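Problem 3 from the worked examples.
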Amino acid sequence: MVRDLFFRHALLPTGWAKNVRLSIRDGMISGVEEDARPHDEAGAIALPGMPNLHSHSFQRALAGLTEHRGEGRENFWTWRDLMYHFALRMNPDDIEAVATQAFVEMLEGGFSAVAEFHYLHHAPDGKPYDDIAEMASRLGAAAAAAGIDLTLLPVFYAHAGFGGTPPATAQRRFINDIGSYARLHERCQQIANTGVAPHSLRAVTPEELHALVTIAGAAPLHIHIAEQTAEVEDCVAWSGLRPVDWLMRHVPVAANWCLVHATHVTPAECTGMAASGAVVGLCPVTEANLGDGIFPIRDFSGKYGIGSDSNVLIGVAEELRMLEYSQRLGLRQRNVMATAAARSTATAMFQGAVTGGAQALGAIGGLAVGAPANIVALAGDDPDIALAQFVFATRAPVVKDVWVRGRHCVRDGRHELAESSRKRFDAVVRKLLA
């Protein structure tokens, strides 16, 4: 398929350009022409589709259902108990329905690709399905139906704590050894672009982690790291080192790595992460919802991207807004994320997150020749103002259209599956709550 799309303004890797014609061939951008002749089907503002570098799509079913206080102090670990309760009840049909809804909402919110950090592998009793990648195949079906680019990150999870602690009963659906994980990974490669995801340092032993690095090769390799202060304290008790420090000393962290959260890190650890070339994966809405903390981005000179993690509220604008506002609250300053090259805070954040997110997914990002034709259209006349209003000053979604690999997935702000997917999703949630 060959087609052209014309926009009065487009955010290219070099910055804003006027009167841009994007030529699309077989789902890829084959040409980018600036100062092209306008025509009647002109769009207003084109943005590159945003990569979502960290999602647990099944957790979309919990959104809004954990916002009440139980007895005692509420934190990540009490939330996790509620999450396990849902996870143990969901069957493959449920997973597909919930993932479809999450992916539809991602597209309507300006995401065009997602890295699914997938650890709900087995049947409720903990036994593998006949197809070890049954759950992953349902994620593939959901992504295909919605039209989003999918990178599968099958998660290796073997232990409940540092030093090889045996897994808890509630974690039985997640558990693999290296042999079964290798089979799962091979099967996932038949479904979608596939990387490797050791869940966290507490869930793998050093020997298992080195085996996973070998399995990954140059493919994306993502890991949760230093999300919680208790995690940092437990890592120090086990090894004498903080999580990021331990990782940098013992594993060849490189540009294909994504260090998800990295919330509780020192300036020296920030320097080490940047020097490694790895991407830091920030999920500001979830990190705020769970009370994790604030990533010290002023100490970090490397690449970052954004993810929707628990999918409590899905949208590019929501993640970028929370990222900037959390920094403002912590530092008591404004326009923290703006740069010398991009004085507009929204534009600077958007460009940074597209670049880092694409690297984390092992993809080419941006509106450039050779990149997937993943395009988000906004309305408006001034592109900097329109993007700033999108991120900071809108009460309703302003994403007008979304194309993924040239497929027109969102028209006038709505996905074609929005209504049917929501009905199916609501039925699953009612069943889980019954």
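Problem 4, a separate protein:
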Amino acid sequence: MPKRKPNIIIIGAGIAGIASALRLRKQGFEVDIYEKNDYTGGKIHAFQDKQYRFDLGPSLFTLPHLVTELIELHGKNPETYFNYSKQNETCRYFWEDAIKFTAPADPDDFVKSASSIFDEDEQNISHYLKNTKDKYELTADLFLKNSLHQPENFLNKKALRAVVNIQKLDLTKSLHEHNKASFKNPKLVQLFDRYATYNGSSPYKTPGIMSMIPYLEMYDGTFLPEKGMHDISQSLTKLAKDVGIKIHLNQAVDEIIFDQKTAKAVRVNSEIHKANFIISNMDIYQSYQTILKKAKKPKLNLKQEGSSSALIFYWGINKEFKDLGIHNILFSEDYKKEFDHIFNQKAFYEDPTVYINITSKIIETDAPENCENWFVMINAPADGKILSEEMIHKIRQQIISKINRVLKTDIEKYIEIEHCLTPKDIEKQTSSHQGSLYGMASHGKFSSFLRHANFTSQIKNLYFCGGSVHPGGGIPLCLLSAQIVSDLIQNNNDN
């Protein structure tokens, strides 16, 4: 008789859970995914209200090859599952003194345009961008594509090269200090400080190595799926079903069962399902609080400061705004105070930075003719509190006032559809601790090493993927966590 293929249970059908399943299925494993919601995708979700379509979660898409390679891995044509377009600009930036800057996607064009708008030397900007590229290339293989928690991953030439060049990584200064030393114009400093929010951190606390984050936009580009961000998860869900992965919706895992320090099964609605390997795609904090109650908690990991959350308004706008693009930032007048409020005071700042995402600029069916679908977000503290209706109304008015001042409009009269998503809603829907979008914040020079590993030495055959564990939050890093986990399991099974 042929040897029975090992089976794997994945808890959570977020993007990392689905990607892990696809990689492991290709390796020959039988895979079941248990998802508590009635949909797949986790934070990558969407909804429709009349003729307006809104992506609920992430709005920025980089490194699309991490998606298409999963399709190619199974011998399929990516174009039959998933299509996207590259954008010719990354973001439009606005300040209250009427300064505007549309950031070209091409690095050379960015340098020329930014030099003109901010009166900064072209060579200076070019040097900064090259520095982001150098940092990324020095550290990507070591920090992003492999487990940081296995000593053998540091015994190679790439690791040695990173150590030799450690002074170039700016670990001893904050991102803001690095940017302030790099540019004379405070607006350009603020523009590059903003990239700390890509992993839910403060530019005044996250280390200067995070200046490598712009690399993905500047050198690889930003993209938009033809059917919206939601199609990232849905195309991979379709592929998963096509290749024999079983997805069980409305099936919340109550407990991971382990014996003799080895994961053996999960309990779902009083039923026990055995597995050779188990992967949790749940938020790591929630994993230990709910489905791993009997396990010893990694106190150092769970004590780390959480990333920021978000307060989001979804507006159907019955007007077109020509000055806006797909991605738009209306900056706060005092960035330092804003982040002090979010991370130190656990409060909302009265003059928030407002992000507006409008996919109908490209996907015409996302809104009625001559209308736009606005995804309006501000960074929020992750503290688990329920915002009162009065507080939401107050913050909403601050956002509207900001938009009106910067865009010289009266936006409220154009809002014909409105929905709101609070940090508490995010926590409830995605099991993210206190609504944190990226697990832990990347504060401190050793933050990468303090993020929970993709495995635990306490329990064999148990693994973790997703934005709350190594290598971090955001779509690309979640997909890379799936790659790390699948490699770990393959090596474990071979041995």
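Solution to problem 4. The mean pLDDT is 92. The CA atoms of residues 122 and 376 lie 33 Å apart.
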